[in-house]
Design brief:
single chain; 252 residues; alpha/beta; four-stranded mixed β-sheet; 11 strands; globular; disordered N terminus; YgjP-like_metallopeptidase; YgjP-like metallopeptidase domain-containing protein; UTP_pyrophosphatase-like
Length: 252
């Protein structure tokens, strides 16, 4: 005799993901093909900054269908990618914003591995010491340290105002979103946000902290978000308008 009521419950397996390259107008981009049980049709998305492509497909779809879908939308991809900002490589002589203010990158030898903000006759500078081949990585590490210092303080301030506590704070280089909040209270942020103006950084932190109380984007969420950051609408619009350019900067 068996009792179906007592069958062991198992978690569903994660959706299968395929990864490959796809060429668009001479550009080779990473392509992720993700199965979704709820998908009824294929959907195509360009990652922020034109850094990659993602197709969501119904389960069991044949590879040939994906290829034909890509062929049909090749013109659309070319048009959209033509509007994506250039992908400047971090190197001496270019400017990158820090908290919204453009800084000229200057390389100087010696003083192993240090990075400092300075000012000269041309305006704000970011002086990077050490081996030239490690310059881009050192600039990225500088932004990560700045993000950790500033954002952890902002999280503490907004959590106190919201009456919630974050379980952990993490920093990543994500191409699809600027921040996230998990159901267990873990907050994640893209360290690239340190290139945005200070009010926009504050808005992003307020947005994710608001999710600690409201795990949705309903009216209660936006009301709380505006209580934490009265500049919510203006900052949200700035990030939507300029975020792609920040995501496009290459630190590799």
């Amino acid at each position: 005799m068996s009792f179906g009521f007592f069958r062991k419950l198992t978690k569903p397996a994660p959706a299968p993901v395929q990864e490959r390259d796809h060429v668009v107008a001479g550009r080779t981009l990473p392509l992720r093909i993700v199965e979704n049980d709820r998908a009824r049709r294929l959907t195509l998305r360009i990652d922020a900054g034109g850094r990659g492509l993602r197709i969501t497909v119904p389960p069991g779809l044949r590879q040939g269908e994906v290829d034909r879908f890509l062929d049909r939308h090749q013109g659309w991809l070319e048009q959209r990618l033509a509007k994506v900002p250039d992908r400047p490589q971090v190197r001496p002589g270019i400017k990158i914003p820090i908290r919204g203010t453009p800084h000229l990158i200057v390389h100087e030898g010696g003083t192993r591995g240090t990075v400092r903000q300075s000012q000269d006759e041309s305006g704000p500078t970011l002086v990077v010491h050490g081996d030239r081949t490690h310059l881009a990585r050192r600039v990225a590490d500088f932004l990560k340290r700045e993000a950790k210092r500033d954002i952890e303080a902002m999280v503490a301030k907004h959590c106190e105002a919201a009456g919630r506590r974050a379980k952990a704070i993490r920093f990543r280089d994500t191409s699809s979103r600027w921040g996230s909040c998990t159901s267990d209270g873990t907050l994640s942020f893209s360290w690239r946000i340190m290139m945005a103006p200070a009010p926009v950084i504050n808005y992003l932190v307020a947005h994710e902290v608001a999710h600690l109380r409201e795990m949705n984007h309903g009216p209660k969420f936006w009301k709380l978000c505006e209580e934490l950051c009265p500049d919510t609408e203006r900052c949200k619009a700035w990030l939507k308008r300029n975020g792609g350019a920040l995501q496009a900067i290459q630190f590799e």
